[in-house]
């Protein structure tokens, strides 16, 4: 699932219905193999620290070097760090996929990391992370999700 995000079109900042399809598959797999949820969450946390949520502060301007940017999730492209715009696209993609996984419910299937975990994530996010562009993008991606009720699909953005 994580590789889908890595290979998707970087100019498209939304998943459309693909995020929920991935959430559906993740829920079915982790329900059959409960240890897979720990692995999946570890993969999310490895590629995007905002799915934990956490933020690493640079102690000063000198500390904002290549190692720091790699540590917070910037990827290398052709031996150089990706642009901030591409980094933010990735943050949005991973957080949207995480939010879709948290929100997906299947009748008769126990969700090991469902809405209760989403509320915990939101409380931790709002109470501990600084107001910087990356956290703003992550928060917006988490809050702007589609709620699926049978055949009805509503898009809700709490932040508008």
TrEMBL record:
Question: Pfam families recorded for this chain?
Answer: GLE1
Q: Which InterPro entries match?
A: GLE1, GLE1-like_sf
- The family this protein is said to belong to: Belongs to the GLE1 family.
Q: Which key words are in the record? A: mRNA transport, Nuclear pore complex, Nucleus, Protein transport, Translocation, Transport
Q: Which domain of life is it from?
A: Eukaryota
Q: Subcellular localization, per the record?
A: Nucleus, Nuclear pore complex
Question: Per the database entry, which stretches of residues form a coiled coil?
Answer: none
Q: Which GO terms describe its biological process?
A: poly(A)+ mRNA export from nucleus; protein transport
Q: Name one GO cellular component term.
A: cytoplasm
Protein name according to UniProt: mRNA export factor GLE1
Name its species. Aegilops tauschii subsp. strangulata (Goatgrass)
Q: Name one GO molecular function term.
A: phospholipid binding
Gene3D superfamilies for this protein: GLE1-like
